[in-house]
Amino acid sequence: MEIFSQSRRTFITTLTLLLASGGLLVRYLTPRSNVRRRVLASAALADVPANGALVFRNERVAILKDDSGYYALSLICTHLGCTVTVTPEMLSCPCHGSRFDRQGRVLTGPAERALERMDVELRGQEVVVLG
Ligand code: FES
């Protein structure tokens, strides 16, 4: 009887551990489609200058517009994290001189990676940058 009781206890413990780890595994592997993304910045479409940029310094993001539409770039330099400055022709980093084109691609280093392109949504007459 003692052997039966111990094997039942082992079985229940094993089953509990399997169910718990299986639940964690499913949660880990399931995409987070229902997670609401944070709004980093938003602006009226009319406020974004054509071939210009609307800069949100505190959020370190810029909304830009070109012939293909609206897009947003992170202003965090991919070299060491300084805040990039937007000029009419390019984006430049004041810390070590990296330059990026208006699409965020590296023109001159030391940065080696492009600026992060942020997701944007058009909501009515507003453009929203999501983080
Ligand atoms: S932090 Fe921008 S170039 Fe170094």
Helix and strand topology:
Blueprint: H1 2-29, E1 39-44, E2 53-56, E3 61-66, E4 69-74, E5 85-86, E6 91-92, E7 99-100, E8 106-108, E9 117-123, E10 126-130
The percentage helix is 10-25%
Poorly predicted tracts of residues: none
Query: What's the average pLDDT?
Result: 85
Beta content comes to 25-35%
Identify the CATH architecture of the largest domain. Answer: 3-layer Sandwich
**What is the CATH class designation of the largest domain?**
Mainly Beta
Number of helices: 1
- At the fourth level of CATH, the homologous superfamily of the largest domain is Rieske [2Fe-2S] iron-sulphur domain
**Strand order, largest beta sheet:** 1-10-9-4-3-2
Q: What is the number of domains?
A: 2
CATH topology of the largest domain: Rieske Iron-sulfur Protein
Largest sheet descriptor: 6 strands, antiparallel
H/E element order: HEEEEEEEEEE
**Distance between the first and last residues' Cα:** 60 Å
List how many beta strands DSSP finds. 10
Sheet/helix structural class:
alpha+beta
Give every kind of bound small molecule, once each: FE2/S2 (inorganic) cluster
Radius of gyration equals 25 Å
